[in-house]
Design a protein that fits this description.
The protein is of the alpha+beta class. It has one domain (22-197): Trna Endonuclease, Chain: A, domain 1 (3-Layer(aba) Sandwich), CATH 3.40.1350.10. The protein is 27% helix and 28% strand. It has a 6-stranded mixed beta sheet, with helices on both faces. The protein has a 3-stranded antiparallel beta sheet with strand order 4-10-7.
Length: 199
Amino acid sequence: MQVVNNIFDCSRCSTRCDGVSKGIYIFNNDVSFSERYENLIIDKINSYGKYQSNKCKKDGFPDIEIKDLQENLYRYLEVKVQQRTFMHISKYLPDSLLKPSETVALNASDLVRYFEIERRTGVTTVIVWVVLNRSCIVRENSFKLFFQTSKELEKIYNTQKKYRTFRRKSGEGDVVDGVHKGVTVNFHFSLNELKEWQW
């Protein structure tokens, strides 16, 4: 399955993504921004008429739970919004062999938690990435959704963990009420390993 054509050469791109780390990570702002896309996804799923989706209220579980029309739990969805591109991935993770244009990230500890939730509950967990601000992939003021099951992502994680894990420096806004909530250790996937949601 090919999602992204890997001919994109970021060094020659006329609309190159910003490669400067923002330095200030306002956790609550990121949560509010993500919730807008969660609500869009919930509304979209509910519009199909086959399933009923809602915000998941269980602590530590993915963002959305989906039930069939008989109220049986069908799926968990975790939504991750990717506003920025890891432009220096070849510098910091050269053995990953990933290009900035194709790379998406997820908090490594969250990822492992979703693996465990699927094993424990037997309910398929799907991670959805909302990709923004990449002119080689999405139009301006638009977005695309890419997804994969945690079972498939775990296979990649198990073989690529040492090549694709990166710890960034803590920044302003990571600490909320004395608790460090910002994501500092990320694991990276290629869009080529995901499926595109035909929105």
